Amino acid sequence: MPLDAAVDMESTESPLDSLAERIAEDIREDRLELPGFPEAVLRVQRTMQSPDASAEDVVKVLSSEPTLAARALQIANSVQFRRGGPEVTELRTAVSRLGFNLVRSIAVAYAIHQLRLRETYSASARAQIEAIWRCSLKVASASYVLARYGRAGVNPDQALLAGLLHVIGRLYIVMRAEGIGGAPDVELARAARAYQGEIARMLLASWGLPETLQHAVEHQDDLDYESDGVTITDVLIAAKYLTDENGHEDVMCPVLDKLAMVADKHPSEVLEEHAVELRALTSSLTE
Known about the structure:
This protein is an all-alpha fold. The chain has a single domain, classed as Hypothetical protein af1432. The protein has helices spanning 3-11, 19-28, 39-49, 55-63, 66-76, 79-82, 91-116, 123-149, 156-165, 168-179, 185-206, 211-218, 232-243, 254-263, 267-273, 275-286. 45% of the residues are buried.
């Protein structure tokens, strides 16, 4: 939805005071920040913006947050990412094994997990953040499995990161509403439909993430998305569609057919065949 049109729609209902109007102003003024995000996680993102960033640079940042560093070590030794290698006991080796995409993913998952635990937020905000957390894990795991086994030529680690990050726009909306005293669920849902993709893209751009990821989160709800070949955007759209608990019985998703042609099987079959790995991956990000 175009920004001006969304603002006009909202302003007819509650001019100046609507959540959508405040978010639109944030976008216009380029002042999008995720309130409450752990500083160490933001430093991870900033550090990795530099093309000259090294594993040592990342280790220094991770070391400033022991819990985050411990999560990186734990996941580096998990079945999904150990991949037959020896157990690692020091952070630099863990970062080298995981790679920057997975380190970013671990940091984002850690940040959302920390937000869930804050008792200073309203019950409504905590419930919303919990739902966002669960959605990010499901979509991220499905994106990884589809990329790894769907013969699409999409990097699984980057697909995992896209799945975790696709909720960032929605998370911003909830936190923005909390900062102005809360908002009715219907207004949160309306704002999410209008802005979550654009906000997610802008936040990823501010973190220096690749344009392919920015594009994917921006078009996450475009079920009729068209591209030459299969892209990370297709994988994210399919993963989100297939893991939506509300279902899409009356809505077609041509992207699924595109992925099915490449893999010679429907994406839902790919997820079903690798259900054990899917659950294990979700569990490793949750623990």
